[in-house]
TrEMBL record:
Residues covered by the Aldehyde dehydrogenase domain: 36-479
Protein name: Bifunctional protein PutA
Gene from which the chain derives: putA
Family of this protein: In the C-terminal section; belongs to the aldehyde dehydrogenase family. In the N-terminal section; belongs to the proline dehydrogenase family.
Residues of the full protein shown: 514 to 1018 of 1019
Function: Oxidizes proline to glutamate for use as a carbon and nitrogen source.
């Protein structure tokens, strides 16, 4: 309720104050010349960042490599306890984290709050799952006279490369899982959001994660490239653009030595299919939330609303009408629905996409935004799925009509597009829902509801094809992917029976 939100807003405001993000290596913060970090809200400096150079990147990798054997040998119970203590720390420092999510990333209070919760959910989920997965090896059926078990152990040094749009939740989702699996981690946050990452790393260290086990490396693509080239690297976890994921794959393939794993969660051209039986109010609510909440800066966001011809005028008018009511502005105002986009480059890209949309198609919604990094919601109509080739990462929705007998063609086009992240279906016909779901390989399918805000452990998040490698974050297969699997099979009759239960530590 609004009294509680106002109270949280005061809590966040009370926790304002300059932030600092510098490389943290072996638990020690580096010094050097910093640059100011601008707020996405108004460009004012909200802290300072010292970006890592190549020497810092090398030092971070080497420190993490030295720390790996001891952290990997730390009982899973103790690693889990660190993550749980960190979850408590995140709760205790709610005001500071909410402040940074608002000031640095321009989030509304609603968005900041759900992101703060999601980060805590990741810490607790990974701790709970890791405690049982890594406590002891799993017994496997073995031939008679032999013991047989499957061990999971850390891989080594994992580079965690995270985006600005969920600078806390995705940062923690990567780092907590990699640590829980016994790896040491060098975390490179997005250059737009180093302060919140630095705060998260402080809280993890304060919770008992050893300095050597987790390094912070603020910086841009150059810092990332140093990590990818370092001989100690054992794997990469990445969330960001499809193009960057491919560049990472190429860099990993070009290395000497081991073949390294990559977990990548990337973009999507996410569609919502609306048939003639769908409820207009439901569609309007869910489409507006999915397309425009967080200023459309989610990889899960709705990009293409695909509506059956017979109801298209009515549905599109309902969506545009609802979107027209959204309030754009300072995200610290409780009445704001849409805050700023992340930076001037993002705004420029979006204005270019809007200019293209205005020329090429019918315009259902356009508007002016306040001065600053604000972009008004827009809705453009296209004629074919193929007309939308790029993910437009902001409050820009495209709509498309399909004839009643044209659904299969639309589904085939969506499949051919190659993305496979989120998919919405709005229909009261069970067979249609089943048909749409079965036709597409998308990772997260949402029926008669919004398509954003996947909950850890409930809707594990991530896709396939151009949208990423899997496994899904916040799901049961993520932690094992960060580990090495080792079976040990022992002939119990040999060695005079003296070598037996390799399942015991
Ligand atoms: C992203 O936007 O990079 O379901 C992924 C959601 C979020 C999306 C995170 N988990 O909206």
């Amino acid at each position: 309720d609004s009294a509680r939100l106002a109270e949280l807003m005061r809590e966040a405001a009370a926790a304002a104050g300059p932030g600092l993000a510098a490389p943290v290596i072996d638990g020690t913060e580096r010094g050097g010349a910093t640059r100011p970090v601008p707020s996405a809200i108004d460009g004012t400096a909200i802290g300072q960042v010292l970006e890592a150079d190549e020497a810092a990147a090398d030092a971070a990798m080497e420190a993490a490599a030295r720390a790996f054997p001891a952290w990997d040998a730390t009982p899973a119970e103790d690693r889990a306890a660190c993550l749980e203590r960190a979850a408590g720390g995140f709760e205790a420092h709610r005001g500071r984290l909410l402040h940074l999510l608002q000031a640095e990333a321009g989030k509304t209070l609603d968005d900041a709050l759900s992101e703060w919760r999601e980060a805590i959910d990741f810490l607790r989920y990974d701790a709970a799952q890791g405690r049982s997965l890594f406590r002891r090896p799993a017994a496997l059926p073995g031939p008679a006279g032999e013991s047989n078990a499957l061990w999971l152990r850390g891989r080594g040094v994992i580079a965690a490369i995270s985006p600005w749009n969920f600078p806390l939740a995705i940062f923690i989702g990567q780092v907590a899982a990699a640590l829980m699996a016994g790896n040491t981690v060098v975390a490179k946050p997005a250059p737009q959001t180093p302060l919140i990452a630095a705060e998260a790393v402080r809280l993890l260290h304060a919770a008992g994660v050893p300095g050597g086990a987790l390094a912070l490396l603020p910086g841009g693509p150059e810092a990332g490239a140093c990590l990818l080239g370092h001989p100690a690297l054992a794997g990469v976890v990445f969330t960001g653009s499809t193009g960057t994921a491919k560049a990472i794959q190429r860099a990993l393939a070009a290395r000497e030595g081991a073949i390294l794993p990559l977990i990548a969660e990337t973009g999507g051209i996410n569609a919502m299919i609306v048939d003639a039986t769908a409820l207009p109010e439901q569609v309007a609510d869910d489409a507006v939330t999915s397309a425009f909440r967080s200023a459309g800066q989610r990889c899960s966001a709705l990009r293409l609303l695909v509506v059956q011809e017979e109801v298209a005028d009515r549905m599109i008018a309902a969506v545009a009408g609802a979107a027209r009511e959204l309030r754009i502005g300072d995200p610290r105002a409780l009445s704001t629905d849409i805050g700023p986009v992340i930076d001037a480059a993002a705004k420029e890209r979006l204005l270019a996409a809007i200019a293209r949309g205005r020329q090429a198609a019918r315009v259902h919604l356009a508007g002016e935004a306040p001065a600053g990094l604000y972009v008004a919601p827009h809705i453009f109509e296209i004629a074919r799925v193929e007309d939308l080739t790029d993910e437009v990462f902001g409050p820009v929705l495209h709509v498309l009509r399909y004839p009643a007998d044209g659904l299969d063609a639309v589904l085939a086009s969506l499949k051919a597009g190659g993305y496979g992240l989120t998919l919405g279906v709005q229909s009261r016909i069970e067979a249609t829902v089943a048909r749409v779901r079965a036709a597409l390989p998308h990772g997260n399918v949402y029926v008669n509801r919004s398509m954003i805000g996947a909950v850890v452990g409930t809707q594990p998040f991530g896709g396939s094809g151009l949208s990423g490698t899997g496994p899904k974050a916040g799901g049961p297969h993520y932690l094992p992917r960060l580990a090495i699997e080792q079976t040990a099979t022992v002939n119990l009759a040999a060695a005079g029976g003296s070598v037996g239960l390799v399942t015991l530590e």
